[in-house]
Specification:
Distance between the termini: 41 Å
Structural class: mainly alpha
Largest sheet: 2 strands, antiparallel
Strand content: 5-15%
Shape: globular
Oligomer: single chain
Strand order of the largest sheet: 1-2
Length: 172
């Protein structure tokens, strides 16, 4: 890591941090995890704002919309707290605990959403999410996005979520 600090007469400081280059395997794992997260959110009609709204209503630290945006694009270098936050949100989806969400449209969207499942068909935990992020656990998606997958048909979000859940359980 290179740390450079420059100081001028106006006492401004500029800090530049350079992280080590990721290996191709590590970058591919991040990209796969991001695509899996994106597919799951899309299939459940979730926006990047929905988990953020849930965390704000509960006084939780994430997952924040900016974190999710970077993650689905495969360019996020998260701290451990992100995976815990994602797991807490996933557990809330499993338990359908959204009483604190004031907006009825958001609450209904969250109530209709299915939790992110591992390829074994269990609700993903923080360790599962981290394992998928680093490539140690499969995400349950194809290596490359399919052009003619069943999810590209004109299906409702509920139908897409059901198809993803069935596929993951079949892979278990």
């Amino acid at each position: 890591m290179t740390l450079t600090v420059q100081q001028t007469s106006t006492v401004q400081k500029s800090v530049s941090v350079r992280f080590p280059q990721l290996s191709r395997d590590q970058q591919d794992a991040r990209s796969r995890f991001g695509r899996a997260l994106h597919q799951w959110m899309k299939a459940n009609n979730l926006s990047l704002q929905n988990p953020h709204d849930w965390s704000q209503a509960n006084g939780k630290a994430g997952p924040h919309n900016s974190q999710l945006s970077l993650c689905v694009r495969g360019v996020f270098d998260p701290k451990a707290g992100f995976f815990y936050a994602l797991a807490r949100f996933n557990q809330a989806l499993e338990s359908s605990d959204f009483q604190e969400i004031a907006d009825l449209v958001t609450r209904q969207r969250l109530l209709n959403a299915q939790p992110f499942l591992t390829v074994e068909g269990k609700v993903a935990t923080a360790m599962d999410f981290f394992g998928m992020f680093v490539g140690e656990i499969p995400c349950g998606i194809d290596e490359e996005p399919e052009e003619d997958s069943s999810l590209s048909m004109n299906l409702t979000a509920e139908e897409e979520a059901l198809i993803l859940s069935i596929r993951r359980r079949q892979n278990a």
